[in-house]
Structure formats: C-alpha cells, structure tokens
Amino acid sequence: MKTCILILIALFLMNCSSAVGDRDANLNVTSPGDINTIEFELVDGVPFYSISRMGTPIIEPSRLGFELREIADLDGNFVIKDYSSSSFDETWTQVWGEKKHIRNHYNELKVHLAEDSDTARELILVFRAFDDGIGFRYEFPEQPYLGQFNIMDELTEFRLAGDHESWWIGAYQWNRFEYLTRNSAVSEIDTVHTPYTMRTADDLYLSIHEAALVDYSTMTLERTEGTTLYANLMPWHDGVRVRTQAPSVTPWRTIQIADEPGGLVTSYLILNLNEPNKIEETSWIEPAKYVGIWWGMHLDKYTWGSGDKHGATTENAKRYIDFAAEHGFPHVLVEGWNPGWDGEWYADGVVFDFTRPMPGFDLEEVARYALDKGVRLMGHHETSASVEHYESQMHEAFELYENLGVRAVKTGYVGHGQEVFWTDEYGNKNFEWHHGQHMVRHHQKVVELAAQHKISLNVHEGVKDTGLRRTWPNLMTREVARGQEYNAWGDSEGLWHGNGNPPDHVTLLPFTRNLGGPFDYTPGIVELHFDEYRPDNRVNHTLAKELALYVVIYSPLHMAADLPEHYQQRTDALQFIKDVPVDWYDTQVLHGSVGEYITVVRKDSNSDDFYLGSITNEEPRSFIAPLSFLDDGREYIAQIYRDTEDADWDSNPYGFVIEEVSVDSETELTLELAPGGGQAIRFTPAENR
C-alpha cells in the first residue's frame, strides 16, 4: 500500500513540477476513494480553489487571501515557491464520544506561496481531501517581513455551484446562537452562523463550518452576491478581525459533503482536523447524566436570587442529592448558590463571587453530603459575560471545586445582549462580541485551567464547537443553541402558532447545530404542561419523543432536566432515562430528512446493548427499521417506549406505552410515530436479561 502511495505522489510531482515559480498554475488533490477533488489555481498571482464531487461542481473557483491593517494585503502577486502532496491514514480512539474508533484518512496538498517582490512574504495553503468532505487552512510561516499583524478581512470565498435549499440562523444578533432555524434558498440569506447546511438540486447535502478554532475569530458566512459566500469574521471593538503574528495558523475551513442527510451526522471530519488529545491521564473525565436545581427556576417555582423561593438552599440541594443517589445520577447541578443573582445581574456582570456561597447554602456541607451518597456536586459559574471579573477569580474558584470533589462545572455567559467587556491598560471599557477572538482566547484559558484541576466543562452561551473536544476532552458539551428552557418561557419568533420550540426544532438540530459537536439540550421533561407555573407554554412533544432525544441529540453530559417530584410520578419514563448511556461505541442513522424526522441507532460503549431514538415533526410517520445492526445469530429483547395510536403532541402528549418483543438481526420493526412524537428502544441480549 505504501509503495502505491509513493508512486501516486511521484506521478503528481512529475505532472506539476512546472508550477514552481509560476504566477499561473493548477494543482489538485483527490480524496482516497476518488470522491472529492480540490483544485488550486494561481491566476495572475491570485490564489483560488474549487471543489467537485465525482465530477460535479460543488464550489466554483473562489478567491483566497487576506486584507491587513497598515501593511500590504496578502491577496495576490504570488508565485508558487514549493508544494507537496501526501496521504494519511490512521484510526484513533476517542476518550468518549458518539463513536469509539475513528478513521482519519485523507490526501493532502500543501502549497507554499511567496510574493513576487523584494520582501517576498510567504503564505502556505493546506488542503485535505476526505471522502466525506474537505478542509483547508492558511499557515503563516516564520519569516523576516511578517511579524505581528492585524487581519482586517479574510477573503475566503465559497462560490456555491447552485442556489441550494438551506437551513440557517442569522449572525450578529443580540441573543447569540439562541434562535430557531430558518429555511430558505441560499440567495435569500444575509449573514449566517455555521454550521450552515444545504441541500442541492441533485440531493447532495453540504455543511460549511470550521475546525480547530484557537486564537482566532469565529467565522460567519456573508452572502456577497448571488450564491457567493465569504468568511465574515467576528471583529474586535476597533474593527480588527484577528490579531496575530507569524508563525501561526488559521482554523480549518470545512465542507462536509454527503449523499444523504444522515451522512452529515456520521461524518467525523471536524474532529479529524483537530489536534490529538493533550491530556495524558483522562480517567477523571467521565461521561455521565446529571440532575439539578435548574428547571424549577425556568418554571418560576424557584429563583436564582435570594428570597422566599430561592432554589439553592442546603435543604433543597440535599433533596436533589437524595434523588440522584436513589436513581444513579452521578452529578447534581446547583445554580444560584453564590452571591450576585439579585437585581439585574446580567446587565453589568461585575457582581458574582465564585468562592463564597449565599446565606442558606452551605457549600462544603452540600459537597460532603453528595460524596457520602456516592454523588458529586456539579459546579456552576455564571459570569454575566464579564470575563475580566471572572478571570480574576477563576483560579481560586477551580481550586475550591477541586478540593470539594467537583469533577464538572457548568459555565454561563448570558451578559447584556451580545457583548462582553474588558478594560484596557488605559482604563477604557471595550465591548466585544461573544464569538470574537477575545472570547475564543478566554474559553481556551478556562478549558486549560479546568484540565489542571481535573474538571470537565459544560459551556453555555459560549463559542460554537469546532471539534476541540478531541484535543481537550474535558471540554465535554456546550449549549450555543436554543435549548429546552425556551419551552418554559420562550416565544415562537413568529415561525409557528405556539410558544417555545416548535415540534420540528429537534428534527433540525442533528443536521445543523449538532454537526459542530455535543449539545446540552437538557431533555427528559415528563410533565409536559406547566399550567401551575407558566400556562402559556409547554413542551411541544409527546412523552416518548422526550425520551428519544437522549439517543438523537448527542451529549456526554445529559441532564434529566425535570423536577424530582415529576419523575417520581412517571417512573415508567424515568427508567429509560436511567438506562440510556451517554458514551457510545458506534452510531448509525437509519432514516433522516432535515427538519422532518430522524432515526438514530447507537451502541453502548460499555455493554452489548443498542439504543434507538426516532423523532418526527408535526407530521405522523411510519418507518420500517431493519435491525441488521444487531449482532448476527443473537437474540435481543427490545424494550420499546412508544406513542399510542391516539397520541398527539398537541391533544394527547401523554399517550405512551412500554412493551417488550424478542428480535434479532433479521427482524424489521415498524416504528409508528405520532404527530410531534417519537420512539425510544433499548435492545439487550436475551442472555443478559
């Protein structure tokens, strides 16, 4: 095999040797399975790239380069100084994840450009072609004529080959990523967040995103004309997009490409473009489920702030700990435990104390009580997006949590609108976007500090996931989307006739937001109506669909989000929540249509069990599910949690039944999903029952 690869590389170099020194040149690289091809062109010194899939254009010739501040731009007048081609093939093992062993197989083209001038500044372009998509990035090598510099614009274009149907969330909005997904043609968008998912007229599925976002600004996509998109980077307060210096690299620009929507879900291209794990000893990083004092605040049963309804009391925390210990939940989250929650805490941010509890909450006693019960307290740091204030305390705060036996912390960055602030050396208060380079740097500080204290993170209102969980596996899950809490009090954004998240919201997430990485959606609500607390809102699902979300939406830290008293009334549904794992050996998608339905099958990483989750939007569905994923020649007991025949998310969401059947790998199950409904199944080998 190695000999064949070397021959291919030699042929490539022979065919392209004339490119060195040219202002006009053409190089290309194709994925290992001859599926996706990246073509690089230098046209009169200006770099372009294009992408095709088995001969079908995906990205037409698109410009590359940078506009810089106060020095000449890096956007043209290039010649090819050197280039190389290589192949890479490995299988690596995740510390935790939706798939245990991941193959990383690509062909790479590296093009070393130099300006045709006396200074001859250099820029390297690296292209990787995978069978499930492509990635490329820029590298700024160490050089005499490029030290520190400011990027004012990244000129990367994505000139799409058609006006595709697309699913998107608008960028530069006050509430960050927490919006419902829109659906339109590419030609109708303005500026959108990534992952940005599209379907072509030929039923190819594309998703543009980025990987390995470190010390750089996050990328949004701005439509400039027709169906051309360009990399619009979140700016600093002074308009600079990125502050950097050579040597350095940009994040990878990625396009996942699949013949069906499920192929996007099971693509691991984003992870493969990140660096390997940097944490040597990882036994303390444990995927788990948790409960907590959280949902009651959103229902207005409890408050974060002090008063008669304060949720974070020692007594209430112990009640949750008792429930967790009884039912095997490893963590208990307690929000509102520290000073700062009274008043408009989100308007300024310099209010929170991260080492001192509020009156009525004995932090040390609660942590000790949890450990005595075989449970751990899950920490909580709401920062109000005042990162300067948080950073002044977080070393002491993480040390405190480590000493108390805390192994996971939920962080929050609600803030006032979209901005966070910091004070410069002159005392000026500067406001920055949540997703600019300033915050990317902050989150990197937090994850590395947390790792030093053997603490995993669950980040809310943070920076979007770009696969850094491979490099820092203690960065376990994030929010960065519109989650379950909107069902308690949110409106519909005018997209449908009810309040909260519409029934199709969770059928969009696997093909959009979740392509970036795990999502702390906080599923598992079993009391679907809130008449006692918030009568205008409810969960717009059936009970079976809430259970199926534990399989469909991946997170290594999944919350059983409802109140303990509600679970005690629905122990039938609670049983599946207790049983379902959060760490998987493998994942398959049996059925999928963006915004309509999805059926996901996952194999437990720590047993021989399989789990299936199937959900639909407002339309009822009937699917045939071949069970060929089960081990051949082995009998399984399928424990099925499904909608009844008369179930309906609106009129009868509690129509719910549990049944068991004997199955094997040759069985075909019929999945009947009610409007807004779902089905969850656990498959256990018969000999293990």
Please explain how this structure is put together.
- This protein has 689 residues and is an alpha+beta fold.
- It folds into three domains: 2-272, Beta-galactosidase, Chain A, domain 5, CATH 2.70.98.10; 275-480, TIM Barrel (Alpha-Beta Barrel); 520-689, Alpha-Beta Barrel (TIM Barrel), CATH 3.20.20.70.
- Helix content is 17%, strand content 35%.
- It is built from 15 helices and 38 strands.
- The strands form seven sheets. Strands 6, 7, 8, 9, 12, 13, 15, 16, 20 and 21 form a ten-stranded antiparallel beta sheet that branches.
- Strand 8 and strand 9 (133-140) form a beta hairpin.
- Helix 5 (314-327) runs parallel beside helix 7.
- The radius of gyration is 26 Å and the shape is globular.
- The two termini are 45 Å apart.
- The model is unreliable at 1-17 (pLDDT under 50).
Instruction: Tell me the fraction of residues in β-strands, as a range.
Output: 35-45%
What is the CATH third-level topology name of the largest domain?
A: Beta-galactosidase, Chain A, domain 5
Indicate the percent of residues in helices: 10-25%
How many separate helices? 15
- CATH arch. level architecture of the largest domain: Distorted Sandwich
Could you name the CATH class of the largest domain? Mainly Beta
